[in-house]
Design brief:
The complex is a heterodimer. By secondary structure, chain A is of the alpha/beta class. Chain A has one domain. Chain A is about 25% helix and about 40% strand. A nine-stranded parallel beta sheet of chain A has the order 1-3-5-7-9-11-13-15-17, covered by helices on one side. Chain A has an eight-stranded parallel beta sheet with strand order 2-4-6-8-10-12-14-16, with helices on one face. Chain A is globular and about 55 Å long. By secondary structure, chain B is α/β, with parallel strands linked by helices. Chain B has one domain: P-loop containing nucleotide triphosphate hydrolases (Rossmann fold), CATH 3.40.50. Chain B has a six-stranded mixed beta sheet with strand order 6-9-10-3-11-12, with helices on both faces. Chain B has a four-stranded antiparallel beta sheet with strand order 2-1-4-5, covered by helices on one side. Chain B is globular. Bound molecules: adenosine-5'-triphosphate and magnesium ion. Adenosine-5'-triphosphate binds near residues 11 and 36 of chain B.
C-alpha cells in the first residue's frame, strides 16, 4: 500500500523532493504509541492526497473575511495561495487582489508577471526567488476554503548570494488539512527568515528541507500553536560558517497535538545551529520534540545547541522531549538541555500573596515561561503573537 | 486587629510552631527575634497562606475573622502583606506588569476602581522614589537577576504600592547595605499609621533603631519564650539568646 502510493506521488512529480523526507519522517521517528493514530491519520492523508484541483473563483470580500478574522490585514498580503486552479482569465482578478497595494490593475498571464513578482501564485506551487543582493519582505497566506479537504502547497525558496528574505506564512484552514512543503536554499552570505503561523483548529503537515551554503543565515519560528494538530519535519544542512536558529512554541491543549522532528546536519566547518522549542501542554494535549544535531568529522568548530523546555499543566497531557547530539569529532561546542516541569508552586504563592488570583497567577507564569520565545521574535510580530496567545486555550487554565 | 492564639503547626509531621500567642493592635509594631530555625518564617508564611503547613491547633484572627482557611490572594485582598525573606525570581513576568496586576486586584477588593496603565505607572513610580529604587528594575523580569538588596527594596516597594493593613517583614534588613537599611526603614516609617500594623522579623537590633517597635518577642523552638519592649532587643544584641534558657 505504502509502496504504491509513493509511486503515485512520484508519478505526479510532487513527492520527488519529499521522497527522502517521507522516508525519514515516518521511519526514523518513533513517537509515543498512544497517539499513533494521529500519525497514521496524518500519514494517510499525506499519501492519499486527492490531487484534484478545482477551478474556483474567490472574491476579495471572502478573503477579507478570512483575514480579518485573525487580525491579519489584507493590504499586508503579498502572496495568496489558494485551493483551485485559476484559469488565465481569472488571474487578473486574483493578482489584483493579492497585490492590491502594488497597484497592479491589469496583469496578464505571462512569464513577465511571475518575473516581476518572483512567485507563482497557484494553489500548489510557489517559487520565491530573491536575486543577488536584493531584499524581499513578504507575507504568504495559504487559505483553504472550508469545504475542501486538502490543500497542497509547495514552496521553493531560493535566496541568492547576499540576498535577504523575510517571509511570513499564515495558514488558514479551519476544517481541512494543509500539506505544506518548503524547500529553502540560501546561497553564500544570504539570509532567510521564516515565521509560520496557523489558524485555530487547522491541521498542518509541514516538511522543510533547508540547505544553507557558506555564511548563510537562517531563522525559522514555528508558531503553529493554534492548530488542532501540527506535524513538522525539518531537515537542514548547515554549511561552513552558516548559522541557523530554529525556534518554536508548542501549546497543545485538549485535542491538540504538535510534533517537531528536526535534523540539523552540519556538513562543513564552523557552522552554528540552535534549536529552541518551548512547550506548554494542557488537557490531553500532546507536545513532542525530537531534535537531532549531527556533526560529522567534516565539521570541526561547529556550535550546535538544543534547548527544549516544557510545562505540563494537567495530569492527562503528554510531553516528549528528545534532544539528541551525534558528534563524530572533538573540536566542537555542543550543548543540549531539556526540562519538563510543572508550574513553580513557590512562584505561584508569591504572586497570589500579592492579591493576584490563582488563575491569573497561573496565566502570568505561563506567559512568563513562553516569553523567552516571544520576546526573541521579530519585533513586527511580537504583539500580534501575544494577542494570539491570549486568545488561545492554554492561558485559560 | 491581628492575633494568633495557641498556634500549633507542622510540616511533614514535624512540629514547628508549638503554641504561639501574639496580639497586635492597630498601629503597633511588633518585632520578632530568635535563633535560626526557630519558626519565624514558618509563622510568617502560615499567616500569608502558604500551603504545605498543617495547622494542628489554634487560630489566626484578622479583623475579627478567622483567616486560616482563606486562599493567599484572599488574605492579601483583606490587607495582609508578607515581605519575603527569600523573594522568588520569576523570569518572563515583567515587574511593572506584576505590580499593576497586584495593585488592581487589591484595589478591586477594597471596592476601588482599577487604575489604568498610565495612572498605575505614575503611582508606582511615585512610590518607588520612597525606596530610591532604580527605575530600570521595573522593566525587568520580577526579581530575576536582582541583587539581594534590590530584591528587598522591591519587596518594600510592593508593600508601599499595596498599602496593606498588616505588613510582615521577614528579615528585610538582611542583604541591605547601611544606607539602604535607612532608606528602606524610612519607607516603612512613611507607612506607619494608627490603622496599620507591622510585624518585623529580624536578627539585628540595628533595624529596630530605625523602626522603633512597641513590642519585641523572642521566638525559640516554636514558642514565644519572652516578650518585652525595645530594651529587650538591646539586651539580645549584647548577650545573645543563651541567658533566656536559664
Ligand atoms: N518544608 C519544610 N520541610 C521540612 N522542614 C521545614 C520546612 N520548612 C521549615 N522547616 C523547618 O522548620 C524550622 C523553622 O524554619 P523557619 O524557616 O521558620 O526558621 P526561621 O526562624 O525563619 O529561621 P531563620 O532565622 O534562619 O530564617 C527549621 O528547622 C526548618 O528546617
Ligand atoms: Mg526565616
Amino acid at each position: 500500500m505504502t509502496h504504491s502510493i509513493i509511486k503515485q506521488c512520484l508519478q505526479k512529480d510532487y513527492a520527488g523532493n519529499h521522497l527522502d523526507g517521507l522516508k525519514s519522517l515516518w521511519q526514523d521517528v518513533t513517537w509515543p504509541s498512544s497517539k499513533q493514530e494521529i500519525w497514521r491519520y496524518a500519514k494517510l492523508h499525506w499519501l492519499n492526497e486527492p490531487w484534484e484541483l478545482v477551478a474556483q473563483k474567490e472574491t476579495q470580500q471572502a478573503y477579507d473575511v478570512y483575514l480579518t478574522q485573525y487580525d491579519l490585514l489584507s493590504n499586508e498580503t503579498d502572496l495568496v495561495s489558494m485551493q483551485g486552479k485559476f484559469l488565465p482569465n481569472k488571474v487578473d482578478e486574483i493578482a489584483c487582489f493579492s497585490h492590491g497595494h502594488l497597484d497592479m490593475k491589469k496583469v496578464t498571464w505571462s512569464d513577465d508577471f511571475f518575473n516581476q513578482l518572483g512567485w507563482l501564485g497557484l494553489s500548489d506551487w510557489a517559487n520565491i526567488e530573491v536575486a543577488e543582493g536584493k531584499y524581499l519582505d513578504q507575507q504568504l497566506h495559504c487559505i483553504l476554503d472550508e469545504e475542501k479537504k486538502w490543500q497542497n502547497v509547495k514552496l521553493t525558496i531560493h535566496v541568492k548570494k547576499n540576498a535577504h528574505l523575510r517571509l511570513r506564512i499564515n495558514t488558514i484552514s479551519a476544517q481541512a488539512v494543509t500539506n505544506l512543503s518548503i524547500n529553502v536554499q540560501v546561497e553564500t552570505g544570504g539570509s532567510c527568515q521564516i515565521i509560520s503561523w496557523a489558524s485555530p483548529q487547522s491541521k498542518l503537515l509541514m516538511d522543510h528541507n533547508i540547505d544553507l551554503k557558506d555564511r548563510a543565515e537562517f531563522r525559522y519560528d514555528a508558531l503553529n500553536f493554534e492548530a488542532a494538530w501540527c506535524h513538522e519535519r525539518i531537515y537542514m544542512m548547515v554549511g561552513s560558517h552558516a548559522s541557523a536558529h530554529l525556534a518554536g512554541l508548542l501549546l497543545p491543549s485538549s485535542g491538540q497535538s504538535d510534533h517537531k522532528a528536526i535534523h540539523a546536519h552540519h556538513i562543513a566547518p564552523a557552522g552554528q545551529s540552535m534549536q529552541k522549542f518551548y512547550s506548554v501542554a494542557n488537557g490531553n494535549g500532546l507536545a513532542a520534540f525530537h531534535g537531532r544535531a549531527i556533526v560529522g568529522h567534516e565539521a570541526p568548530k561547529t556550535d550546535a545547541r538544543q534547548l527544549a523546555r516544557a510545562l505540563m499543566l494537567s495530569k492527562a497531557c503528554e510531553v516528549y522531549s528528545r534532544p539528541e547530539l551525534e558528534i563524530d569529532i572533538d573540536d566542537v561546542q555542543c550543548q543540549h538541555g531539556s526540562s519538563i516541569g510543572e508550574l513553580d508552586t513557590k512562584a505561584l504563592f508569591y504572586l497570589r500573596s500579592r492579591g493576584i488570583d490563582l488563575n491569573q497567577a497561573k496565566a502570568m507564569l505561563i506567559e512568563g515561561f513562553i516569553e523567552e520565545i516571544v520576546s526573541d521574535l521579530d519585533q513586527s510580530v511580537q504583539s500580534w503573537i501575544r494577542s494570539r496567545i491570549a486568545k488561545h486555550e492554554i492561558g485559560k487554565v | 486587629m491581628f492575633s494568633v492564639s495557641n498556634l500549633h503547626a507542622s510540616v511533614d509531621d514535624k512540629k514547628i510552631l508549638k503554641g504561639i500567642e501574639i496580639d497586635v493592635k492597630p498601629g503597633e509594631v511588633h518585632a520578632i527575634m530568635g535563633p535560626n530555625g526557630s519558626g519565624k518564617s514558618t509563622l510568617a508564611n502560615l499567616v500569608a497562606g502558604k500551603d504545605g503547613y498543617t495547622l494542628d491547633e489554634g487560630s489566626i484572627i484578622f479583623n475579627g475573622q478567622d483567616i486560616s482557611g482563606l486562599e493567599p490572594e484572599e488574605r492579601a485582598c483583606l490587607g495582609i502583606f508578607l515581605a519575603f525573606q527569600y523573594p522568588v525570581a520569576i523570569s518572563g513576568v515583567n515587574n511593572m506588569v506584576f505590580l499593576q496586576a497586584a495593585l488592581n486586584s487589591v484595589r478591586q477588593a477594597r471596592g476601588e476602581l482599577p487604575l489604568d496603565a498610565m495612572d498605575a505607572i505614575a503611582f508606582i513610580k511615585d512610590r518607588m522614589k520612597l525606596v530610591e529604587m532604580k527605575s530600570d528594575l521595573l522593566q525587568r523580569s520580577l526579581n530575576a537577576g536582582f541583587s539581594g538588596g534590590e530584591k528587598k527594596r522591591n519587596e518594600i516597594l510592593q508593600m508601599l504600592v499595596l498599602e496593606p493593613k498588616l505588613a510582615i517583614l521577614d528579615e528585610t534588613d538582611s542583604g541591605l547595605d547601611i544606607d539602604a537599611l535607612k532608606t528602606v526603614s524610612d519607607g516603612v516609617n512613611h507607612m506607619r499609621s494608627p490603622d496599620r500594623s507591622f510585624i518585623i522579623v529580624t536578627h539585628y537590633q540595628r533595624l529596630l533603631d530605625h523602626i522603633k517597635p512597641d513590642f519585641v518577642h523572642v521566638l525559640k523552638d516554636g514558642k514565644i519564650i519572652k516578650s518585652g519592649n525595645y530594651e529587650l532587643a538591646l539586651k539580645l544584641e549584647k548577650e545573645g539568646y543563651g541567658w533566656l534558657d536559664q
